[in-house]
User: What shape does this take?
Amino acid sequence: MTDTSDLARIADALDRMCPAPAPAPDFDAADAFVWHTGPDRLEPVPQVSRVDLSLLVGVDRSRETLLANTLQFAKGYAANNALLWGARGMGKSSLVKAIHGHIVDQGLPLKIVELQREDLPSVTRLMNHLRAAPYRFLLFCDDLSFSHDDQHYKSLKAILDGGIEGRPENVLLYATSNRRHLMPRDMIENERSSAINPAEAVEEKVSLSDRFGLWLGFHPCSQDDYLTMIYGYCDAYGIGVDRGTIRAEAIEWTATRGSRSGRVAWQYFTDLAGRQSVRV
Assistant: This one.
């Protein structure tokens, strides 16, 4: 005969195996959230790390295109999922965050939710939360790419295509990647050489990026754009160092780094601001 304590232990074990559904997130708590699993939850982000949209130079066409697309969506109109791809450090993720902040500052109730690549298999559960909410959401996947044996790209297809239910009308996906097709080139070539039907094997993977309606390419910046970025930061933070001195130091800085990008411009500016006792 089973006693009461045995029944209690069985009940506890069943609760652990099948936990109660998580409570609905409080979307009024913040304008930005990060999706976590184990257990599922949306963590509010009180202060997003971002720069002002006006400080992002050298990406004018991408900036205006993505801003127009996001404004359409925030106002309730049709808009495209966007893939921002290209050179490292050229402001892809900064642009997404800056545009979100710019739109929120205009009084439009747009939320942004960051989703990590490793959490893509849980995206259906996340979508269920977002679908039922009275807000519009940017689902943001930063630095997205897939390795040879990575099957997470199939979960991404579910976001973009939406299955039977379709992608929620109030959710838009923005992703950044260094790769236009999200897959390493040698992975695509291996598929082509080893598959029974090479064309179909390659098509399945290359078509992933085709599911984004908007492609925005980011390319290495010129020296003039690099210096313009730094001058813009100096003006915004009130640093009055002579431009000739800044130019000489900034060019030397990029020479020691072996690259020139928006990220390198910010790193030089951070060093300069520290030497000038300016907080950034």
The CA atoms of residues 147 and 183 lie 7 Å apart. The longest strand covers residues 171-177. Residues 60-74 form the longest helix (15 residues).
